[in-house]
Design goal:
Belongs to the peptidase A1 family. Keywords: Signal. Pfam families: Asp. GO terms for molecular function: aspartic-type endopeptidase activity. About 10% of the residues lie in helices and about 35% in strands. The chain is mainly β. A hairpin with a 2-residue loop joins strand 8 (about 180-190) and strand 9 (about 195-210). Helix 1 (about 1-10) runs antiparallel to helix 2 (about 15-30). Bound molecules: 2-acetamido-2-deoxy-beta-D-glucopyranose (NAG) (5 copies).
């Protein structure tokens, strides 16, 4: 339906009509959200002309990547399993192992003078570091040795400006069942060259966590509506006690330190990824004429109110996919997620693309993924955003580290996302500089060379 409407609009050359139709089409796509999920569109907070998105900034930080045999299902488990998760009692579920390789990105932060490394998460809003005297607990809520939580160096001090008054605590449960809680207070937080004064943060004192032994907490870059602070010190995480606060990125903007956007460029299999505050990293050999601009949509995962669990992602609606000579322009919402390695597509699109490998990839249900010969010929695959093709790096389309021991076949990068929503993971993000233009409620993508 959309294709015909779009072509009709182009023929008439009516920009206004195109816009109206695309809003209409998006509304239809958004209404068909799978169970446990809802979408909303944030409002632009800054006038259209206020900021030049192409401005390079020197506030650039290196991203460290952690890649290994442990899956990163912090967000993908939330996406694929939100409505299937069983939460009872303290509410933990073991990590699923079906999500292949996970990549996590982290960056250096100075927390009241203490240099620490925090995971970068565009899918949550709270920023926290683990305090020295914390309790590490297991899935059953039993206290286990701190080492089991796998943190890097723990934060030795207290809040620079004291706790919140009245007292508040953070309680967050991530998509894979990890839980972090602790008191809220105020400290200066420095990222790159930018110091955010008196930021409201959490010093985690109880965690159920699967760490990498290097990072000591997490920096959440999503919106105020997704913060998880609650009145009191107790275990009462009743939604009625929730108090929204200004998360790190919002404070940075409100304190006038940067324009309201950040951008991320990740590199394949390396630690040379970049996070730029208030602009884009300088001189990355990109062609701004090719910028694809899409509406930013927030995906919420709705869970049992008892867990007061809320998780959100930056979501877009691509035009569709192209693989070899085939173009598929059916529209679906996709989450742009640096915390997920593969791309998760609607089942029939995933199936069709996997059939284009030679030999054709087959679905192995144990993994929820497709496998083909490790030396297969790969198709040319692009996701089409705003009329621009973003080609996936052919070198990434077959995961040679991920071999099924029974068949000797290798996993492909195009997996089935079930009933959705669907995910554009690292395999896609490596092909673009991604600008989270929060001020204008747009996501912008600029094609990059493969590195
Ligand atoms: C900090 O800012 C200065 C000048 O604005 C710039 O030269 C330098 O590269 C910046 N450093 C970082 C780490 O962003
Ligand atoms: C989770 O994993 C632990 C340790 O491997 C196991 O003992 C427990 O039964 C598992 N729980 C569930 C709900 O699968
Ligand atoms: C953790 O901090 C909360 C305040 O938010 C406090 O009530 C609780 O006793 C602390 N727990 C531990 C184990 O220190
Ligand atoms: C972290 O260190 C512990 C103890 O040395 C080890 O058992 C665990 O495998 C390490 N985890 C990772 C992800 O490296
Ligand atoms: C990643 O880089 C390492 C070291 O440079 C190399 O040994 C490895 O084969 C690379 N992996 C992939 C998937 O390219």
């Amino acid at each position: 339906m959309f294709r015909d409407a779009a072509m009709c609009a182009i023929v008439r050359g009516l920009l206004a009509l195109t816009l109206a139709l695309s809003v209409l089409a998006n509304a239809d796509v958004l209404k068909s959200a799978p169970p446990g999920i809802s979408f909303k569109t944030p409002k632009a907070t800054h006038p259209w002309t206020a900021i030049k998105v192409t401005n390079p900034t020197h506030n650039v930080q290196k991203l460290r990547s952690f890649r290994g045999s442990k899956t990163n299902s912090r967000s993908v488990a939330a996406i694929l399993g939100a409505h299937q998760r069983q939460v009872g009692g303290f509410g933990y579920e073991n990590i699923t192992t079906t999500t292949a390789y996970g990549t996590q990105y982290a960056t250096d932060v100075i927390w009241n003078g203490f240099r620490t490394m925090l995971l970068l998460d565009t899918g949550s809003s709270d920023t926290w570091v683990v305090q020295r005297e914390f309790f590490c607990i297991d899935y059953a809520g039993q206290i286990v040795p701190q080492i089991a939580c796998g943190f890097g160096p723990t934060y030795p001090g207290d809040f620079q400006y004291g706790p919140t008054n009245p007292e508040q605590h953070m309680f967050i449960q991530y998509g894979d069942g990890e839980v972090v809680t602790g008191p809220m207070g105020f400290s200066d937080i420095t990222v790159g060259n930018i110091t955010v004064a008196r930021q409201e943060v959490c010093l985690a004192n109880t965690t159920y966590w699967f760490g990498n032994n290097q990072t000591s907490g997490l920096m959440g870059l999503a919106f105020p509506s997704l913060t998880n602070a609650y009145l009191g010190t107790s275990e009462d995480h009743d939604p009625g006690n929730q108090l929204e606060y200004s998360p790190l990125f919002t404070s940075m903007v409100n304190q006038g330190k940067i324009p309201p956007l950040f951008s991320i460029a990740i590199d394949r299999n390396s630690s040379s990824g970049m996070l730029a505050w208030g602009g884009i990293p300088p001189a990355t050999g990109i062609d701004h004429a090719k910028t694809a601009t899409l509406d930013m949509i927030i995906t919420n995962l709705i869970d049992q109110p008892a867990t007061a669990y809320e998780y959100s992602f930056y979501t877009i609606i691509p035009d569709g996919w192209q693989y070899d000579q085939t173009t598929d322009l059916k529209k679906f919402p996709y989450i742009v997620d640096s915390g997920t390695t593969l791309c998760y597509l609607p089942p029939n699109v995933a199936e069709a693309i996997n059939e284009a490998f030679q030999p054709a990839a087959v679905y192995l249900w144990m993994y929820g993924a497709y496998f083909t010969s490790c030396t297969a010929i790969v198709p040319q695959i692009a996701v089409v955003l705003n009329g621009i093709r973003f080609y996936l790096n052919p070198a990434d389309l077959i995961y040679r580290e991920m071999v099924d021991p029974l068949t000797g076949l290798c996993m492909t990068a195009i997996a089935s996302g079930g009933s959705g929503p669907f995910i554009l993971g690292d395999v896609f993000m490596q092909s673009a500089l991604v600008v989270f233009d929060v001020g204008q409620a747009k996501m912008r993508f600029i094609p990059r060379e493969f590195y």
